[in-house]
Amino acid sequence: MVKTIMVVDDNADVITSVKYGLEDTKKEYQVIGAESGKQCLSLLLQNRIPDLILLDIMMPEMSGWELFNKLKENKSWKKIPVVFLTARIDNIAKNAGKFLGDDYIEKPFEIQDVKNRINKVLEKKQSDTA
After folding, report:
1. Residues of the chain under the 50 pLDDT cut
2. CA 76: distance to chain centroid?
3. Longest CA pairwise span in the chain (Å)
4. Using CA atoms, how far apart are residues 30 and 117, in angstroms rounded to an integer?
5. What is the pTM of this model?
6. CA–CA separation, 127 vs 8, rounded Å?
7. pLDDT tens-digit profile of 26-62?
8. What are the extents of the domains in the chain?
9. What does the radius of gyration of the chain's CA atoms come to, in whole angstroms?
10. Quick check: 32 and 48 in contact, CB under 8 A?
11. Which residues are within 8 A (CB) of 21 and not within 5 positions of it... i.e. 6 or more apart?
12. Which one of 17, 57, 96, 126 has the minimum C-beta count within 10 Å?
């Protein structure tokens, strides 16, 4: 079954890289891009609910932390796994990201590592709901 991954990042190149890296010939993933927290919320309100969100922390207008809080406040979205995908490598962000989110991946990233970690989070979610 195809898994939908939403990539929320203000850098379109990151969204494109993840999209091309995940939407390979196996057709395991469909990637939806959102270039801001506002666009992410708009897509969710249109019922474009992903299986997992890859979320940048440092974005203008609404940070990844702020978006994360909005996701967790909504009963329809709070169970969507969130993996932080960010250039922030300081210990505070890393520890908060690992504690709050389902995983924390630093940029630059290897797409195979992103795939492996997405699979791990989705498998854990599936076993938790089984």
Report:
1. none
2. 16
3. 38
4. 16
5. 0.94
6. 26
7. 789 999 999 999 999 999 999 999 999 999 999 999 9
8. 3-123
9. 13
10. yes
11. 111, 114, 115
12. 126
